[in-house]
Amino acid sequence: MSETSLEKLRIDAKLLHRAWIAREPWAVERVRQHPPRKDLTNLVRADFLHIIAQENGFASWPRLKAEAERTGLDRAARLQRLKVALAHGQVDLAETLLEETPDLADGLFGLECALYRRAAVEKALAAKPELAVQRLGPRTPILHLAYSRWIHKRPELEGDMLAIADLLMSHGADVNDGLHGPDGHKLSALYGAIGHADNMVLGAWLLDHGADPNDNESLYHATELGHHEGLRLLLSAGARPEGTNALFRAMDFNDHVAVDMLLAAHADPDDFKGRVVGAEAPTVIPALHQAARRGCDGRMAEMLLDAGANAERRWQGTHPLAFAKVYGNAEVAAVLETRGATCALTEEEVLLVRAAEGEDSPGVYVDPNRLADPYRNIIHDILRLPGRMDHLKRLVAIGLPFDTADAQGITPVQIAGWEGLPEIMGWLLSLRPDLSHINGYGGTLLSTILHGSENNPARADRDHETCLRLALEAGVALPRHVISATGRSDLRGFLSDWAEAWPGQVV
User: Fold this and answer.
1) Keyword Kinase on this protein (predicted)?
2) How many distinct structural domains can be found in the chain?
């Protein structure tokens, strides 16, 4: 079975190679999603084997082949999916894989830590104590534990989880260990527990045992959780908001409680940084501009002004009051005017404000060359705000581009998909955007929707299934490997049903 399956994958690579030479759109998309090297000219068969391996969750063809020969391709592929699922927090998929193959993680120390298998961890450490500090894949055992979201599937294993943490630490594990990204950026165990896994119990344990709350990650991401326990833990342990952009991230959710907590901890509303947080550079923008852009209310603007935000501070040539009016944030604009802010509008700002206030401008268009840089991505910014469909249509009518990529290479239709907003996405699809676009993270429209379904903070209230349906009805390809790798069981079922009904769309 293993050899036959490997031969089938070799044939898949051969077919992909031929389709790439012919520049079939589906083949171009697959190559761009998993580029075997920077220079995509003169690709050879080994490059396409590499792509096939990556699509199946392996780092390379030799790694796939070795695992297939060791355990059989089917089990090797299942094991790789389990590793990826646990690393990405796809606990529904991990549970399904373990139900189908209960012994899949047996004897794999990192996975046993992530699954809170206390007895197995104790036995392994008794036989080989140095396992506690060995790197198993890209992570040490304490990182496998910290980044695991298994606690949300098995809350009754909390005691075993903490016992494993104690065991690892007593055998030399470092609570300040971190996961190193390709750029050398470090994501700490504390960030893994609080920011990634939303595991407050383990986060508190790490802090109690010496984890550094000022890791340049945890405080920022603690604002994304939909509760304030992470912020309380970190601030109580001495986390400093300065230089973290945590205040600005809290404003993304119009979260008065979080902003108040951060201001009480001496966050400066005029202290915004462009450095990397969570392997990404947050958008550098002053607080009042941020409040206007994110749809914050007047109370938020008052809190920021009371904390010292400068109502006259310009950003890239834009005044806070003009910015609020352009973005259609009447509440923030009213507060600024009440506090005495004034400014003259440019010709372009007048047009943009008319669009925000519900007025059409027939026959008049914005000159893109005269548009201030902060306004160029206004469609990207406001499409996620409620009740903005008419505003968006008026912006397109006066000439704002609807299919350009932002600094991360993401287009508006991809943002709508990630946000799970089918009405906005359907309208953008009617404008015929480029459905083959690959963003800066290597994501297609389909994979971006799936990523949002698992990672968007508002995903519980959004409709990613309808977004998937819209994308598929528009003709995007459905890669077979994406179906089995989908983290949410309901969406995995939806994609499986679609593949059965429309097999010609599956690649």
Assistant:
1) no
2) 4
Alpha helices in 255-359 (DSSP H): 256-264, 287-293, 298-306, 320-326, 330-338, 347-356
DSSP β-bridge partners for residue 180: 186
pLDDT of res. 106: 94
What span, in angstroms and rounded, lies between the C-alpha atoms of 205 and 216?
19
Tally of CB atoms within 10 A around 167: 21
Cβ atoms of 434 and 446 within 8 Å: the answer is no
Q: What is the CATH number of the domain that holds 454?
A: 1.25.40.20
Given 205, 233, 265, the domain boundary residue is 265
Both 78 and 199 in one domain: the answer is: yes
Q: Examine residue 270 and state whether it is found in any structural domain, yes or no.
A: no
The DSSP output letter for 488 is S
Residue 444 three-state SS = coil
CA gap 443, 482 in Å, rounded: 12
Report pLDDT digits (tens) over 287-338: 999 999 999 999 999 999 999 999 999 999 999 999 999 999 999 999 999 9
113 and 229 share one domain: yes
- The domain containing residue 345 runs over which residues? 275-400
Are 80 and 224 members of one domain? yes
Q: Is residue 370 part of a domain?
A: yes
C-beta separation of 81 from 91 below 8 A: no
311 neighbors 280 (Cβ within 8 angstroms): no
Q: Compute the distance between CA of residue 263 and CA of residue 303 in angstroms, rounded to an integer.
A: 9
Beta-bridged to residue 178, according to DSSP, are: 188
Residue 492 lies in a domain: yes
Tokens of 211: 């984890």
Judgement on whether residues 258 and 281 belong to the same structural domain of the protein: no
Give the CA angle between residues 258, 179, 151 to the nearest 5°: 60
Would you say the pTM of this structure is higher than 0.85?
A: no
Q: Are 315 and 328 in contact (CB under 8 A)?
A: no
CB neighbourhood size of 422 (10 A): 21
Dmax of the chain from CA atoms? 78
Mark which of 351, 371, 400 sits at the end of a domain: 400
343 within a domain of the structure (yes/no)? yes
Strands, E assignment, 49-198: 178-180, 186-188
Are 28 and 35 contacting, i.e. CB atoms less than 8 angstroms apart?
Answer: no
Pair 420, 467: CB distance under 8 Å: yes
Which segments of 189-297 does DSSP mark as H helices, in order?
Answer: 189-191, 200-208, 218-222, 229-236, 246-251, 256-264, 287-293
Q: How far apart are CA 295 and CA 276, in angstroms?
A: 24
**Is residue 4 very low, low, confident or very high in pLDDT (cuts 50, 70, 90)?**
very low
The rounded percent of the chain whose pLDDT value lies above 70 is 95
Residue of 375, 424, 423 whose CA lies nearest to 399: 375
DSSP string, 379-392: HHHHTTSTT-HHHH
Q: What share of the chain is helix, strand, coil (3-state, %, to 5)?
A: 60, 5, 40
